Amino acid sequence: MLIGYGFAADVPEAVADVGETQEMDRYQVLGVVDPKEYKIVALDISIHPEGPEEPWTTEITEPPFEKQYMGLTVEEIDLAPDGKIDAITDSTLSSTWVTNAIREKVQGIVRKAKGDR
């Protein structure tokens, strides 16, 4: 019995393509999507093991930010006002990257599960 689809993402995915990488935070996202309604049922956002040693902000890795994604479908995963996610003040770029990565992973799961590869 299938109980969920798991996903992992490094954010940003391609650090080499992003200028001033020494000054930006990197994240690792792990999540689980319900196999029937394709809603997020578990999510963990953490500072990427490859750094930086002193992140700009850790608010993105804390439960209040992560909890915003719980129960959302792919259509709802976007920053407000287009979606239901409130960005972290002074971390709009990181909030955008994390949100986009999560949405893309969920979209891929839905496409694959429904056979629309």
Query: What gap, in angstroms, lies between the N and C termini?
Result: 23 Å
Quaternary state of the chains:
single chain
Kindly report the CATH topology. Answer: Sufe protein. Chain: A
How large a portion of the residues is in β-strands, by DSSP E?
15-25%
Beta-strand segment tally: 3
Radius of gyration: 14 Å
Helix- and strand-based class?
alpha+beta
Residue share in helices?
10-25%
> How many domains, in number, for the residues?
1
Order of helices and strands: EEEHH
Main beta sheet strand tally, sense and closure: 3 strands, antiparallel
Query: Under the CATH scheme, which architecture would be assigned?
Result: Alpha-Beta Complex
Tally the helices.
2
CATH class: Alpha Beta
The pLDDT mean sits at 88
Polypeptide structure, described:
- The protein has helices spanning 63-67, 92-113; strands at residues 5-11, 27-33, 40-47.
- With 117 residues, the chain is of the alpha+beta class.
- The protein has a single domain (5-113), classed as Sufe protein. Chain: A, CATH 3.90.1010.
- The radius of gyration is 14 Å and the shape is globular.
- It starts with a strand and ends with a helix.
Top keywords for this entry?
three-stranded antiparallel sheet, alpha+beta, 117 residues, Sufe protein. Chain: A, single chain, 3 strands, 2 helices
What's the structural blueprint in terms of helices and strands?
Layout: E1 5-11, E2 27-33, E3 40-47, H1 63-67, H2 92-113
Antiparallel strand pairs: 1-2, 2-3
